[in-house]
Amino acid sequence: MFSFPLNKASTTVIATSTQQQQRRQRQERHQQQQQQLQQRRQRQERHQQQQQQLQCQERQRRQRQEQHQEQQQQPQCQERRQRQEQHQQQHQQQLQQRRQRQEQHQEQQQQPQCQERRQRQEQHQQQLQQQLQQRRQRQEQHQEQQQLPQ
């Protein structure tokens, strides 16, 4: 009589421990599946990154080729670019000169004595240049006379 309830209790304990073990196994399997999924996802992401890098490299290579072709095919394009740059430079120079002339004009209007000083400086510079030129001419004449056979 006593053995029946004891048996029942022991079978219940065994059953619960088995259920716990099964639950634990299910959890482990679930964890493993999750890890596998994560690993697969990481592999896919790495693959995608590699693909993108390859595509990027290919795009860069194509661009370099196109640039090279353009350079080889169109020297006139380069000339056009140079002409444009020259034109821009000229335009900037003209602007700068105009600005300088305007500033000079303002200075002249504001300060007449400044103008006189500038004129004196310019005259002095011209005189210096003339003297230099004369000296150079004399030197050249002297050299020519020395080089002439006597």
The main pleated sheet reads as: none
Indicate the low-confidence ranges by residue numbers. none
Number of separate helices: 3
Q: Quick one: overall form? A: elongated
Distance between the termini: 158 Å
Task: Describe how the helices and strands are arranged.
Layout: H1 3-73, H2 75-110, H3 112-147
Short description:
The chain is mostly helical and about 150 residues long. It has helices spanning about 5-75, 75-110, 110-145.
Q: What does this protein look like?
A:
There is one protein chain. The chain has 150 residues and is mostly helical. Among the domains are: 1-51; 86-134. It has three helices and no strands. The chain is elongated, with a radius of gyration of 48 Å. The mean pLDDT is 84. Residues 58-69, 78-88 have a biased composition (Basic and acidic residues).
What would the keywords be for this entry?
single chain; 150 residues; mainly alpha; elongated
